[in-house]
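User: Modeling request: complex.
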Amino acid sequence: MANSSCSDVKVLGAWPSPFVMRVRIALNIKSVKYEFLEETIGSKSQLLLQSNPVYKKIPVLIHGGKSISESLIIVQYIDEVWSSGPSILPSDPYDRAIERFWAAYVDDKFFPSMQLINTAQGEEKAAKVEQVTEGLVLLEEAFQKSSKGKAFFGGDRIGFLDIALGPMLGWLRAIDKMGGVKLLDEVKTPGLVQWVESFCADGAVKGVIPDIEKLLEILEKMKGN
Amino acid sequence: MAEVKLFRAWSSPFPLRIVWALEVKGIEYDMIYEDLSNKSSMLLQYNPVYKKVPVLLHKGKPISESLVILEYIEETWKSKTPSLLPGDPYQRAMARFWAKFGDDKILPLIWEAFIKQGKDQEEALIAAHENLKYLEVELRGKKFLGGETVGFADLTFGWLANLVSVFEEIAGVTLIDHEKFPLLLTWMKNFMDAPKIRETWPPRDKLINHFRALRETLIAKEPK
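Assistant: Request completed. Predicted assembly structure:
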């Protein structure tokens, strides 16, 4: 598809949201310029309520006046519209199914298990840590199978599942640095430990996932509240 | 023996979506029925993460999660019509959006309204109706969510046509009334009448017995 003007493509979001990060990374992979409209935490703009009346949540992609919600659906949309750019989903239907399966797992199971882990205490924290670790072990296995020795789930380049999981583990890496718990473990999940570094260093991701120091700032603030 | 096998449970709506997709597209498959209270080692091997049905086995490779399977079927048997997803990326995104919305919001809330009683049931029903309103609006001017023929989103909502009247009979409550949701009720009828759909429904009396027993068990487990 031909170049769209910047105002043609808008992303409604907030930079800390891993779901918003997915959309921005996908647009970067396709070299699509977009306007980033940041929502203020704690309030929802008229545009958000209008463009996502069902969920009233970010991210929303607005393209040529049409709105699309739900981050993984948006990423697939981006892949299909800007089809001349690097592919995000693999071409083989079975490989696509595997990536979709694990991306759905991240949303349905893994991300919920991560919630409030940095503010939990005692027994609750231990239980959460166990759940997240189990998830990471499963994802490590998936990574080994999918990457076949290459840097990313998608192979040599970042793909759909990398985009789905990357922002979550980007945050997890910061949670680990806060101390008290080590979720990304070089022994249990060596592939993922290496992968998250490669992911965060990738050109399409840099600038979308802030440096670990900035993430730590936010986490500290959350702990303080 | 067909190169496609589908692991299902006779009463579960999720594998039924896959049955519909395969039937509608005329794809040959073998059905393997699972007893969910005694899962086969094959099922546990093919879906170790969730241990659930449906699982589609194609040339020996397993795929789980009904929406993932539907996309796989659409992409693998490209020449088999009808297409479940439209060609236009925005329309495809909308189909995926509504399918996900159905599973995230409608299904759990209708289920809650079915298995709960009293105030809990009332609240679940109010929430279900709040969300069904969006579907009612989306159906304006459409025979199916997919247009003229049954599509991805229709298959995902198909359980409404199949199970709501069963739930209503058992629980003695109207879940979807014709005053508030005339278009939805019309859609349910159109879906039932679409080719290949009703032929594959489990027998109604079996469904009633099954879900009545399930509801009683769940109600008995509720803390008083």
